[in-house]
Amino acid sequence: MKCYLAGTTVASPKQAKKIEQLFKEGHKLHSFFHWTGLEKEWSEVNIKNGVDLMLDSGAHSLYNEHVMKKPKHERNYDWSETEEFWEYVDSYAEFVKEHEHLLTCYVNVDVILNPEQSWKVLKYLEKKHGLSPLPVIHHGADEKWVKKHINAGYDYIGLGGPRLGSTSAQYTKWADKMFDVICGQSSRLPLVKVHGFAMTSLSLMLRYPWWSVDSTTWVAHGRNGSIIVPRFKNGKWIYDERSWVIAVSSRSPNINEAGKHINTISPRQKQLILDYIHEKGYKLGKSHFVKVPQSHELKENERWAEKKLKDKSAKRLLEIIEEEGVANRYQLRDEMNIIYFQDLEKTMQEWPWPFKQKGVKGFAL
Question: What is the DSSP string of 5-67?
Answer without folding.
Answer: E-S--SS-GGG-HHHHHHHHTSEEEEESTT-SHHHHHHHHHHHHTT-EEEEE--HHHHHIIII
